[in-house]
Design a protein that fits this description.
The protein is mainly alpha-helical and 154 residues long. It contains five helices and no strands. The protein is elongated, with a radius of gyration of 18 Å.
């Protein structure tokens, strides 16, 4: 449970940084309307090209995209850890956290490819749901530690 708690706390911190980077991008960086991935009809091809372009572009956009990938990997690890802890009751909330991160990521790719504000809104909503899930993991894992370390009474 300690590993779940620590990773959950780390993910909450990364999500806060991701949110701040996203706000900086939204307010101070103009994404060009025409870049690799902004054209074509196939969604996944466009998304992949936009992701590669964004990371190679550097700066805040590359940091935001790279951190999003790190959060995805961390959330997958958190879910895997939750499935290894018997009776933790955290399996479904960690899977929901992964799904929220995936939804945020796909809508981030959509925003890069299509430039529509609704994608940005869904990205933010996915982040909020992920934050709630990771916070719940911290809360539950901490509660389990407190119960397990209580002194025995006679």
């Amino acid at each position: 449970m300690t590993g779940l708690r620590r990773l959950g706390l780390g993910l909450v911190g990364l999500c806060v940084v991701e949110y701040l980077l996203g706000m900086l991008l939204n307010l101070f960086v103009a994404i060009p309307h025409h870049h690799p991935g902004s054209g074509g009809s196939e969604y996944f091809g466009r998304a992949w090209q936009s992701l590669l372009w964004g990371i190679s572009h550097g700066g805040l956009l590359a940091a935001h995209l790279s951190l999003g990938i790190l959060i995805l990997l961390g959330s997958l690890t958190l879910a895997a850890l939750a499935f290894r802890v018997p009776n933790s009751g955290l399996r479904s909330v960690t899977v929901l956290g992964v799904l929220a991160v995936v939804a945020a990521g796909f809508n981030g790719a959509s925003f890069l490819s299509y430039g529509q504000n609704v994608s940005s809104m869904i990205m933010a909503a996915g982040l909020a749901v992920a934050l709630l899930c990771f916070s719940w993991v911290i809360f539950r894992a901490t509660g389990s530690l407190d119960q397990g370390s209580a002194p025995a009474t006679s």
